[in-house]
C-alpha cells in the first residue's frame, strides 16, 4: 500500500491532518529526508512555521544542503563517520552535536549521549547525521516502552526520562521567548514552582508590567501518569502488501507504507479496542481499503473518540464515496462489539488529498455528538470539531487561562479561536459577558449548543476569522477587559494583533501550541504597550516534542 501523503502530521490537534493511532508528528527519526520532516500537511495548510527557523529549522538544509561532496569551510563531508557529544535538542527532537564548531543534527540522540554518526547531508551552517552507534548513554536515556517506537515516529521522546522531557520543554519555551521574541526571561531558580499542578500568578502583575521584570517561565505542568492520554485516534486504512488484507495503523517511518497497529501506549485503551473492532468488522463485511495511488477503494480512515467522563464512544468511517455496503450489518456489529458507542458516523471524502475529512458527515446510528466533561462543564463534540486530546491536561491548561484572566464577574471577555467554546464557557462563569469567535461553522454550532447545555446565558458566539470579527465587534462598541487567544500553530494573524492593541484590554491571555509563533506575537504585543508577566507551559503531549503554553500579558499603563 503506497501512500502519497507527506509524512509529517502534527500531534498538536490544532493542526487537523494528523495520522495514525498516535496521531502524530512523524519526524523520520534516523532518516536523512529532513526537508519535509517536521512540517508536513499542517504546515502546508497553515503556512510554514512563521517566526520559526531556529536551530533545527528545515529551511537552511533545503537551501544549502549537499547530499555529497564538500562545502568550503565545512569540516565534514557526506558519508563521513564522526563522533559527537550531544549538547542539546532541537524543537523537532533531534540531538545537536558539533564537530570543530560545525553543527550536526542527529535523530534519536539525546543530550548527554556520546554517539558515532554518519554524516547524511551538509549545508553551510549545519548538517544532518545518522546515529550508527551509541558510545555512551545519557543518564536520562530509557528504553522506549513502545515496541513499534522506531518505525512509528508518532512520539519522539519516549526514550527520554519524563522529568528530563519536562525540563527540556520549559527550557524550549524560555529559549524561544529569548531568541525569537528578544524578551527577558527570569533565571529558573527565581521562578515560582508550579510543580503542584497549579499556575502561580506571580506577585503584582501590574507593577511587574510597568517595571519590566523578566518573564517567569514556570516549570511545566506534567502528568502524574504520562501514558494512555489521547481521547481520539485517527487511523489510516490500507491493505497488507502480502495478501491484500485490510489493515490500519500508521505510515511507516521513511516510507509510504501503512503498518498495521493494534496498540499505542499514548492512546486511551477504549480507543484501541474500538479501532480493533472496526477493522475486524470492515474485514468481515469485505470492505476494500482506499488505495492512495489509484484513488480506488472504500475505507480511507477510521476515526474514533472516547469521552473519559461519560464513557461514550464515537466511530467515524471516512469513505471514498457515499455508497456504504451492508450498512445495517455494519451498525449492528459495531454496536455489539464497541461498548459505550453512542454515535456511528460516515464521513465522505473523495478528494485526492491527505486531509482526513471530507465535507459531508452522515449519522449512521445514534447521536451526531458524544458528550464529555471538563472541569464540571459538559461539551457536545461532533465528528469534525476540534477538541483537546488530553482531558487531564486540558483542565489544567484552562484553569491556568482562567487564573491569568483574573476575573471578578464584571468583565467583558473575548475568546478568539474558541473552537467549540471550551475556554469561553470556562470564562463565562467568572465574567459579565463573553464573546467567542471561531472560523469553523460546525464548531460554533457546538459552542452554542454547549452554552445552552450548561445553562450559560452570557456567552455570544460568531463564525468567522478572528481578524475579521474583532474589528466588527470593536465597531459595535464591544470593549473587552480581557482577550484570550488560542490560535493554531501559525499564531495570530497580524490584523488580529493590531485590533487587540487598539482595543487595549487590561489583560491578554495567550494560549499557544507553538513557542516560536508565541514568541513572535508576544514581541508585537510588547512593542504595542504590553508586558509579558509569566508563562505556564502544560504538557498536553507527553513523549512528543510538543508543548502547550499559557502566557499572561498586562497593559503597561
Ligand atoms: N480554544 C479551543 C480551540 C483551539 S484550536 C480549545 O481549546 O478547544 C484553534 C482553533 O482556531 C480551531 O478550532 C480552528 O478552527 C480555529 N481557527 C483557525 N484559524 C482561525 C481564524 N483565523 N479565526 C478564528 N478561528 C480560527
List the helices and strands and how they pair.
Layout: H1 40-46, H2 58-64, E1 81-89, E2 94-99, E3 102-107, E4 114-122, E5 126-136, H3 149-152, H4 162-179, H5 205-211, E6 216-217, E7 232-239, E8 246-251, E9 258-260, H6 269-284, E10 299-306, E11 313-319, H7 327-337, E12 341-348, E13 360-366, E14 369-374, E15 377-382, H8 391-405, E16 412-416, H9 422-428, E17 433-438, H10 441-453, E18 459-463, H11 466-475, E19 482-485, H12 494-503, E20 507-512, H13 515-527, E21 530-538, E22 548-555
Parallel strand pairs: 3-5, 6-21, 11-12, 16-17, 16-19, 17-18, 19-20
Antiparallel strand pairs: 1-2, 1-4, 2-3, 4-5, 7-8, 7-10, 8-9, 10-11, 12-13, 14-15, 20-22, 21-22
This protein binds S-adenosyl-L-homocysteine.
S-adenosyl-L-homocysteine binds at residues 14, 386, 388, 417-419, 422-423, 437-440, 443, 465-467, 486, 488, 493.
Amino acid at each position: 500500500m503506497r501512500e502519497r501523503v507527506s509524512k509529517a502530521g502534527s500531534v498538536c490537534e490544532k493542526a487537523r491532518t494528523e495520522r495514525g493511532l498516535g496521531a502524530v508528528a512523524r519526524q523520520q527519526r534516523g532518516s536523512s529526508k529532513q526537508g519535509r520532516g517536521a512540517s508536513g500537511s499542517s504546515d502546508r495548510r497553515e503556512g510554514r512555521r512563521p517566526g520559526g527557523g531556529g536551530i533545527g529549522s528545515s529551511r537552511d538544509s533545503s537551501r544549502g544542503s549537499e547530499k555529497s561532496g564538500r562545502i568550503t569551510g565545512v569540516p565534514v563531508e557526506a558519508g563521513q563517520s564522526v563522533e559527537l557529544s550531544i549538547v542539546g535538542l532541537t524543537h523537532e527532537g533531534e540531538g545537536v552535536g558539533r564537530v570543530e564548531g560545525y553543527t550536526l543534527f542527529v535523530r534519536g540522540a539525546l543530550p548527554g549521549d556520546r554517539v558515532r554518526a554518519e554524516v547524511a547531508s551538509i549545508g553551510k551552517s549545519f548538517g544532518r547525521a545518522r546515529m550508527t552507534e551509541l558510545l555512551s548513554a545519557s543518564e536520562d536515556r530509557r528504553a522506549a516502552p513502545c515496541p513499534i517506537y522506531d518505525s512509528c515516529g508518532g512520539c519522539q521522546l519516549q526514550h527520554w526520562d519524563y522529568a528530563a522531557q519536562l525540563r527540556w520543554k520549559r527550557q524550549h519555551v524560555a529559549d524561544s521567548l529569548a531568541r525569537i521574541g528578544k524578551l527577558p526571561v527570569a533565571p529558573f531558580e527565581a521562578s515560582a514552582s508550579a510543580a503542584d499542578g497549579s499556575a502561580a500568578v506571580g506577585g503584582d502583575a501590574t507593577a511587574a508590567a510597568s517595571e519590566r521584570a523578566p518573564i517567569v517561565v514556570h516549570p511545566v505542568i506534567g502528568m502524574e501518569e504520562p501514558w494512555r492520554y489521547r481521547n481520539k485516534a485517527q487511523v489510516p486504512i490500507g491493505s497488507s502488501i502480502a495478501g491484500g488484507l485490510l489493515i490500519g495503523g500508521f505510515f511507516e517511518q521513511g516510507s509510504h507504507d501503512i503498518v498495521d497497529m493494534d496498540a499505542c501506549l499514548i492512546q486511551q485503551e477504549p480507543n484501541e479496542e474500538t479501532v480493533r473492532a472496526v477493522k475486524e468488522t470492515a474485514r468481515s463485511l469485505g470492505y476494500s481499503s482506499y488505495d492512495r495511488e489509484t484513488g480506488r477503494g472504500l475505507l480511507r480512515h477510521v476515526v474514533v473518540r472516547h469521552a473519559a467522563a461519560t464513557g461514550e464512544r464515537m466511530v467515524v468511517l471516512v469513505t471514498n464515496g457515499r455508497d456504504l455496503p451492508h450498512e445495517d450489518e455494519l451498525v449492528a456489529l459495531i454496536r455489539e462489539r464497541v461498548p459505550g458507542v453512542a454515535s456511528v458516523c460516515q464521513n465522505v471524502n473523495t478528494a485526492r488529498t491527505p486531509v482526513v475529512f471530507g465535507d459531508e458527515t452522515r449519522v449512521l446510528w445514534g447521536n451526531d455528538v458524544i458528550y464529555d466533561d471538563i472541569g464540571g462543564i459538559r461539551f457536545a463534540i461532533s465528528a469534525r470539531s476540534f477538541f483537546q486530546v488530553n482531558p487531564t491536561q486540558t483542565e489544567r491548561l484552562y484553569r491556568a487561562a482562567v487564573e491569568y484572566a483574573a476575573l471578578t464577574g464584571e468583565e467583558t471577555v473575548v475568546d478568539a479561536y474558541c473552537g467549540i467554546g471550551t475556554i469561553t464557557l470556562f470564562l463565562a462563569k467568572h465574567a459579565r459577558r463573553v464573546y467567542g469567535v471561531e472560523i469553523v461553522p460546525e464548531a460554533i454550532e457546538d459552542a452554542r449548543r454547549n452554552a445552552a447545555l450548561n445553562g450559560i446565558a452570557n456567552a455570544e458566539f460568531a463564525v468567522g476569522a478572528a481578524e475579521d470579527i474583532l474589528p466588527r465587534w470593536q465597531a459595535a462598541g464591544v470593549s473587552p477587559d480581557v482577550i484570550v487567544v488560542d490560535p493554531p500553530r501559525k499564531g495570530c494573524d497580524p490584523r488580529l494583533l493590531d485590533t487587540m492593541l487598539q482595543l487595549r484590554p487590561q489583560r491578554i491571555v495567550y494560549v499557544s501550541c507553538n513557542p516560536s509563533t508565541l514568541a513572535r506575537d508576544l514581541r508585537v504585543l510588547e512593542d504595542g504597550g504590553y508586558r509579558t508577566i509569566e508563562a505556564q507551559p502544560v504538557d498536553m503531549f507527553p513523549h512528543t516534542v510538543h508543548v502547550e503554553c499559557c502566557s499572561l500579558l498586562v497593559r503597561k499603563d
